[in-house]
Amino acid sequence: MILTDPVWLEEPFIQTTNYQLDAHAQLDFYPCTVSEENISTAVPHFLPGQTAHLADAADWIPAEAARGGAATTYPEYRLTLRGASHARPAGVAKPAAAPPTRDRADSEIHVLPVQGNIYMLVGAGANMTMSVGRDGILLVDTGTARQTDKVLTQVLQLATALTASPAPNKCVGLHCPSTPGGWTSPSINATISSPAPPKPIRYVINTSGDADHTGGNEKLAELPHDSPIVAVTFPPVTVVPTATIISHENVLTRMSQPTGAQAVPSGALPTDTYHLPRYKLSEFFNGEGIQIFHQPAAHTDGDSLVFFRYSDVISAGDILSTTSYPVIDLERGGGIQGMIDGLNFILDLAIPEFRSQGGTMVIPGHGRLCDIGDVTNYRNMVTIIRDRIQDMVRKGLTLEQVKAARPTADYDPRWSASAYTADMFIEAAYKSLTPKKPVAAKATATKKKH
After folding, report:
1. What pLDDT sits at residue 325?
2. So what's the pLDDT on residue 59?
3. Longest CA–CA separation in the chain, Å
4. For a tag site, which of 223, 241, 268, 297 has the least CB within 10 Å?
5. Cβ neighbours of residue 227 closer than 8 Å, sequence gap 6 or more
6. Which of 277, 270, 294 is nearest to 213 (CA)?
7. What CA–CA distance (Å, rounded) separates 124 from 143?
8. Where are the alpha helices (DSSP H) in 303-405?
């Protein structure tokens, strides 16, 4: 049996044990609550060179081989230790290169049903989250600008299929609702009615100010003029506003003062911001409450997590990714400790169905759909690398020395296959962990009287 897993294995793993089917086998029932579902923020591990039993194997296992990896499992690896070139064993395929994380102009938008009212849109640059229902459409992030037309087409098609098309009334009998005194009934009306236009996009939530998260803000926030909304006034009136764009206030501040040559259009800027640690929509939307949590100093200083409480889905933005190391934007207030705090907050908010699997689903900024087990593995990786780099910082190592020590070596085959390399992650983590030198005060001349 050969196992192929592009997520956890560098190359196909040949399983050498033979199994025999037992049609009468029964699994024992678990009689108690499993304590491991209560995820701790502590990640136990040994720092490089400080493993308790490292000295026992130092005479017969070289340090480089002890760090592991698929290549070390083959007898031919001994040639590498002797200085000879190591050829890949015959019949073992070379790991496929990871696909680029940036979107292409010709890429398609794919829709993945998550659970409840929530759908995941992939292919617009960054992952998008969509809530669709009787109240309209809510989007978390809007992808890149050049993918906006495809996103809008896909969103309206999905909304039409789910909420706008009439459905025949299957109720039969005296207790079914009908129109008294006429030949029509709900069944006939549903059959002969034209499909109603889908409800428009009512809300857009930006998890950060990155261009692949806000590029479609302006166009997706425009409501068609034939889709009026009944405003909550006395008496109620129909209005045609633009969709409400919500973000943390730091996102608006940075988008309003761009450093590049091209300014952000006013229609793409957030219309509503929050400054507290958490924010919630003032009413149920599509049958559920929606909460937004600010995660300071993570990917940037304006990151938001969006929690759909009834559907039990968290949209994590760039705090979580399954395609690369965490992208830390130091210039916009990001930091590795904030990334870990954000991941721990997701773990605290999420509830697994059983043994860290299922239950609350988490949509990352890039990559595949996750559950609490995936978030835990990612959190552990970031925490372990943080501890390694922090230990080197305390010992006074320079950035180049830390890079040469390769604190990410055992994780590179899995996480360094994207445009955001291990060296870029190490540099960002090192700078965010290095204490900033205080600014020297200007000396003031004093005159002494004699």
Report:
1. 96
2. 66
3. 114
4. 241
5. 197, 199, 200, 240
6. 270
7. 5
8. 336-349, 372-394, 399-405
How confident is the chain (450 residues) per 10-residue block, as mean pLDDT? 75 75 76 59 83 68 71 80 53 45 64 95 94 92 94 90 67 55 50 66 95 94 61 55 91 82 82 95 93 96 97 97 95 95 96 89 96 94 96 95 93 85 96 77 49
* Model pLDDT, residue 97: 46
Per-residue pLDDT at 32: 63
pTM beyond 0.90:
no
Tally the residues of the chain.
450
What SS3 state is found at 433?
Answer: helix
Query: Domain ranges in the chain?
Result: 63-88, 110-165+195-375
Three-state secondary-structure class, residue 110: strand
Residue 422: enclosing H or E segment and its boundaries? helix 422-433
How far apart (Å, rounded) are the C-alpha atoms in residues 62 and 20?
38
**Order of strands, sheet of 361-366, starting from the edge strand that comes earlier in the sequence:** 278-280, 290-295, 303-308, 313-321, 361-366
Tokens 């098609």 locate to 157
Q: How far is 137 from 201, CA to CA, in rounded Å? A: 4
Contacts of 386 (CB under 8 A, 6+ apart): 336, 337, 340, 429, 433
What gap in Å lies between CA 232 and CA 170, rounded to an integer?
A: 34
Query: From 3.60.15.10, 3.90.640.10, 3.40.1190.20, 1.10.10.10, which CATH number describes the 110-165+195-375 domain?
Result: 3.60.15.10
Cβ–Cβ < 8 Å for 147, 106: no
301 secondary structure, DSSP code: S
What are the tokens at 436?
């900033």
Distance of CA 239 to the CA centre of its chain: 35
Determine the pLDDT at residue 381.
95
Q: Using CA atoms, how far apart are residues 110 and 105, in angstroms rounded to an integer?
A: 14
How much is the CA Rg of the chain, to the nearest whole Å? 27
- pLDDT computed for residue 57 by the predictor: 65
- Please name the residues in contact with 18: beta carbons below 8 A apart, sequence gap of 6 or more: none
pLDDT of 25 reads 80
